[in-house]
Amino acid sequence: MGRTSRKRKRKKMKNQISSLSTEDSVLNLIKWLLLEDWRPTCNLRRSTFPKTGRGLMTKELISLNRIIVRIPAHLLISVKCVSESLLGRILRESETYFSVHQVLAVFLIWEKHIGMNSFWRWYIETLPQEYTSPLFSNERDIDKFPTFIKERIHELRRKVDELFKSVQNIMRGKICQHCKKALVYVFTSGEFKWAWFTVNSRSVYIAPEHNFPHDLKLRDANSFVLAPFLDLFNHSDDAKVNASFNSKSNSYEIETLVKYNRFDEVFVHYGDHSNLKLYLEYGFILNKNKNDVIFFDKCDFNAETFACSEYDYTRKINFLISKNFFCDLYCTFEDLSWNMYVLCYVFSPCFAFDDNSIKKIYSGAFNSCDKYNISKIGKVIIKNKLIEYQEYFDTVDKYINKNNCNESVVIGCSLLKEYMDILND
User: Fold this and answer.
1) Alpha-helical segments (H) within 242-367
2) Nearest-CA neighbor of 223 among 232, 210, 214?
3) What is the CA radius of gyration of the chain?
4) N or C: the chain end with fewer CB closer than 10 Å?
5) What angle in degrees, to the nearest 10, is found between the helix axes of 338-346 and 310-322?
6) Alpha-carbon distance 286 to 238, whole Å?
7) Which domains does the chain have, with CATH numbers?
8) Are 102 and 161 in contact (CB under 8 A)?
């Protein structure tokens, strides 16, 4: 290669770097990716957006079916990477079967620990050291939320704790060859929680048949990898993409199915997740998330709710249970679920335990009087739930104002506000 050609290549690389970021850690990541033969497929730039914070802005028109990012296979952190590392030997010696998330998490801890000696150093340095998921909140903060949120947080914590214990067991008695420290002091509970959340919130799906061969014992399908650079994109439930591993280009590719104008933020799509799932597993929520659902159960109803006798209430609840209608009781931004409609009808003055009423339940052939009564009872149920959430919201909001809470509590308060907006609609 001649001197002029080398200068052109260096200038092009410099332009690609400066167009993407001015942040040191991301700048170093881009430099490293370019040196490893990664190339941008679109003219993107890191920018700050009022609703999403830091994200990627396009400097050009992006048409439908354009590849917005392509990551070469050798820059994907896979189970194969782990199996070929020093850590792979330790995992192979164990009789334990690991989950893919577990394997990738311990690899992140290991690579973070070896620091300058890690091939993945520049990627790891871009990862947040703290997350806003309630997984990292203290019990005092969590206790302020409704039971259904607390239960999901505790369920997630138990899952992560169990995974950590199995990792801790295989690290006992082993020494780090880099620093001579016992590995149980490297693979700590805090580090594992951080690494597991990183993998859970940043890994991407690859069909097992396209993933890379390895010799580790897995208890689930080898279908996830970490892909440096993808973290720079934000998620939107309006984004439409095709994401897959392309065997021809030997790369992981994301194709956009929507158009972007110049200066638009470019998004990817993590999946059709509710705000509760996004809050728990990603540490953020979306405004007016179309996947949000508010569930109801027996605790939300009593004889007073429907202005009926205890006898009538018990009889009708038992009827709904026997016909399998006392489940999937929820509402969305758009409407009540079908089973909620049925419940409201059964508790309306129009319902009788006869063939005509039961036929209406299965056919949906409600007349205008039925629909009026269904709507009337539905509004009572919605109003009661709104009052309940308003009380929780006020409690959490007051708690935030009086205490130095972490960001996850503030986001949790916003989640309650989103639920209240659904009920108000």
Assistant:
1) 275-281, 310-322, 338-346, 355-363
2) 210
3) 26
4) N
5) 140
6) 11
7) 77-226 (3.90.1410.10), 294-424 (no CATH)
8) no
> Encoding tokens for residue 55?
């994200």
Q: Is the pLDDT of residue 106 over 70?
A: yes
The residues, any chain, with a CB within 8 Å of residue 335's CB and separated by 6 or more, are none
* Contact assessment for residue 408 and residue 134, using Cβ atoms and an 8 Å cutoff: yes
pLDDT of residue 425: 78
How many C-beta atoms surround the C-beta of residue 312 within 10 A? 13
Distance in angstroms (rounded) separating the CA atoms of residues 363 and 343 = 15
Backbone angles phi, psi at 30, to 5 degrees: -60, -45
Beta strands in 30-135 (DSSP E): 44-49, 53-58, 67-72
User: Which DSSP string corresponds to 138-199?
Assistant: -HHHHTTS-HHHHHHHHHHHHHHHHHHHHHHHHHTT-B-TTT--BGGGTS-HHHHHHHHHHH
How much is the mean pLDDT over the chain? Answer: 91
The Cα–Cα gap between 305 and 313 comes to 10
Nearest to 222 by CA among 95, 90, 102: 102
Helix, strand, or coil here: 368?
Answer: helix
**CA atoms of 370 and 378, how far apart (whole Å):** 12
pTM for the model: 0.88
Burial class (CB in 10 A: 0-12, 13-18, 19+), 269: buried
Pairing relationship of beta strands 251-256 and 241-246 according to DSSP bridges: antiparallel
